[in-house]
Each structure stands twice: as structure tokens, then as C-alpha cells.
Amino acid sequence: MEHLVSSWCNGRSLPESYILPPGKRPGKLTVPLANNIPVIDLGGHDQTDVINHGVPSNLMDEAMSVFKEFHALFAKDKAIETSKDPNKSCYFYTSSPNYATEKFHFWRDGLVHHCNPLEKYIQFWPERPPRYREVVGPYTAEVRKLGFRILEFTSQGLGISPDHFSSGLSENQTLLVNHYPPCPDPSLTLGVGKHRDPGGINILLQSDVYGLQVFKDEEWVGVEPIPYAFVINIGYPLQIISNGKLKGAEHRVVTNSNVARTIASLFFNPSSETLVEPAKALIDASNPALYKSLTYKDFLSKYIAASSDSKALEEVLSTTL
Ligand code: OGA
Ligand code: NI
């Protein structure tokens, strides 16, 4: 656990292992803020409403507080609180789950745990801070409802069955709570490198600290936190299921030298044996499948093998390249 970023970062300069190769560094630190990310208001009549999303604002505040309190624990306590399940449905890492083998590290600590079914997994969640389970249980339950509404609207928009995502394709709901401590040199490292998420959708709660950037039209743009709004991110599997109609957004996280940033993402991932493939209703003679069908397990191994090389991954998954 001695490699926890938050346990040693205070007052030190950036260790060599966190300095990214020149081509992967953030480059220009000030990028334009995005001004055309659609803000969807789920409170209106026409289902395009993701403010007024139904998750109570006090629950969002409380969840963010316990996530920050968790990351403020001593490293040895974080280790204890994340090793309750021998099958490792709850775990903790610095940089990425491949810390031991990766060539360079990213400036983040991450807590991960499964959330579905809640009754099965909650016993393995942290018990410190003391309110963790009491707050995060209802939080994930509310965000789950929101996720299913969004997936239903997504199906409607694509013209596929409204329950297309209701079982295997979204069964594996996993919470990732990232913490990015203040960084000695944000120009040389990143919190998370450029990637597309490996899940279906991701419902992301940001603290009020900026750090998320999206790669759009060959340019990085910043996604400023909007109070009580969620960021909805489309992952690669949804790109496959929609046969390319929806695009997984490429994004990364920059650090800053002043304040820590905490976020919580609920990922709606397929279960391991579920087939990830273009929806049959979107395929016909004039619209051939652009992607191969793969179990989610096989998709993930290809995703991991391609590392963050999106061209290499596209080549492996595409039927046409
Ligand atoms: C991630 C990620 C975004 C953020 O962990 O996959 O993209 O804002 N995090 O921290
Ligand atoms: Ni991501």
C-alpha cells in the first residue's frame, strides 16, 4: 500500500515514475471549456431532460462527503476497509489496477466495488467512514434507477427494444471513486490518460473541482462541473451495440497543484458472459454489422491488450478494418 498517491504526495516533487513520455503529457494546461455539451433536463415532458434527474441533491452531497472522508483515511485503514472480500469485489489501487507492471503511473487513487445486487456486495464495502454503507447504498440505488431510465431513452433513440439493456448488458454495476491529490507538476502527468470507458454508460458525479477533459474534433475541451448535474459518458460497448451510431467519448483527467479532486462513477457494464454485439434491429443488408460479437470478457481482454491505443482497439473489434 506504500504506493498510495495520497499517503506521500505532500510536499514532494513529482517522482520520475509519474512523469509521462513527452507525447503523452497534457501539453497546454489551459484548454477551452466545452460550451456545447448538451445539458439534459430529465424533469420535462419530452424525456430529454441530466439535471432534474431524480437523485436527491442532499444524497449527492452526502455521498461526495463520505467519498472524500474515505480517501482521507490512513493508508493502512484504506487497505483494511477494501480487503473484506476474498473474491475481491472491493479493492483499492493507485494509478491503475496494473500498477506493478505499467511503464509509468497516473496521479490517482481509486476505490472500486460492485453494487449489484446490493444485498450481496454491501457486506464487503468499507465500514469507515462509519456512514459509508448507509449513504452509498441509497446513492447507488438512486443512480441505478437513473441509469436504467437513460438506457431506456437510449434504446428508444436508437429504435431498438426499450429493454435491450435491462439484463445482461448492464448487470455488472460497479462504483469507482477516484481521488486526485494536489500534484507537484500537472504539466508532466495526468490523473487518467486518454481512453474510452470500457463499460456501457457511466454516471459520473464530480466534486466542484475541474479536471475532466474530452477529446472532440481533435482538440481537448474541459468539462466544467455543474452543481448537482451528472456527466453521462458513453463507453465503447455502447458504440458496438449501437453499431457505431453512438461514439464512446475519449477523455482524460488533468491534475492541479492546489486542491484535491474526488469523483464517483457508476459504471453499467455487461456481465462477463454477455455477448456485446450490434443490436440485431440495427443490422440489415444495407447496414452491415461494423463490429464483431464478443463476450464482454473477451472484449475486456482485447481492451486491456490494446492499452489506450484506440486505433489498435478499433482494428481488433471492427469487421471492416
Ligand atoms: C475514469 C475517468 C473521470 C474523472 O476513471 O475512467 O475517466 O473525471 N474518470 O475523474
Ligand atoms: Ni473514463
UniProtKB/TrEMBL annotation:
The keyword Iron applies. Pfam families: 2OG-FeII_Oxy (PF03171), DIOX_N (PF14226). Residues 170-270 form the Fe2OG dioxygenase domain. GO terms for molecular function: L-ascorbic acid binding; metal ion binding; oxidoreductase activity. InterPro entries: DIOX_N, IPNS-like_FE2OG_OXY, IPNS-like_sf, Oxoglu/Fe-dep_dioxygenase_dom, Plant_2OG-oxidoreductases. Keywords: Iron, Metal-binding, Oxidoreductase, Vitamin C. Gene3D superfamilies: B-lactam Antibiotic, Isopenicillin N Synthase, Chain (2.60.120.330). The keyword Membrane does not apply. It comes from the Eukaryota. Belongs to the iron/ascorbate-dependent oxidoreductase family. This is Fe2OG dioxygenase domain-containing protein. The lineage of its organism: Eukaryota, Viridiplantae, Streptophyta, Embryophyta, Tracheophyta.
